């Protein structure tokens, strides 16, 4: 079995209900948090019960240099104005050769914000965009 290089470049793809929004080179916020309620049992001083109450999910921020796929993101964000439909999404992490590292399914995805590039001739940096999405949990 060939050894995989964990330091290789990773790319991310975002797919909304089967439609690709393109490749991203940054992905932050794939996380969840379980709130825990503590209950003390009468007569038992040896421990405290840790009971899960609710799970919350952080927003996910995807970043990339500006590409023609930006129009797909704008179209998706504009579709929110005509009625909220919360689709299923997938984020896939791919190696430089295109092979799959990991995939996350997301339930009821909603675009939260989009930030376009700063177009300043005094600062000739790479034009980037940031897409932030919210979701209601992970799925297969």
Automatic annotation (TrEMBL):
Top-level taxon of origin: Bacteria
Cross-referenced Pfam families: Phage_T4_gp19
An example Gene Ontology molecular-function term: structural molecule activity
Entry protein name: Phage tail protein
Organism annotation: Streptomyces rochei
